[in-house]
Amino acid sequence: MLDSTAGWKQGLLVSCAVLALTVTSAGAASLQTWDKVIPDGAKRFKVLNQFDGEAVLDKETGLVWQRSPSSISTFDWGSSVALCVGTAIGGRRGWRLPTAWELMTLKDPAQSDPALPPNHPFEDVVTETIYWTSTADAETASHALSITFANGGAGIIIGDKTTLGLRWCVRGPGGDYPGTP
Fold first, then answer.
1. pLDDT tens-digit series, residues 52-69
2. pTM
3. Is residue 180 part of a domain?
């Protein structure tokens, strides 16, 4: 038999749990925009003035992308991960290498050279070189996933982490810890 204090505490705990679930669900629903498809880059992407025009908000995913990804210097996977974490873009830190799935959200299957939505605001996107993702290969620890932007229909490439590639840094929720499948 429960005394009145125990019953009151149990009722309070249940009320707090229900409130927490309601707040979490409402917050998650307002952030989740994956069901939106905005094919026109001029409507989908917004160059952010508060980042000195060096970053772009993707209204479809809620992620903030580096406007001009690395286009000249190539690095291995580990260096690419570290360089995104250590860089300041638009006067801001907090960048990371995107997951394979996040980077794939930029690709437009109907486009090529670059495989980005029409009217996108990105600059200096290289199409012949891989862009590293933070996603490691689940089967081979020395491999990671990368993507090219030459052809919209092309998928993910699995390659050795020592291969030289480019990086396209991102900010926002999501991601994974580098080195995990």
1. 999 999 998 999 999 999
2. 0.76
3. no
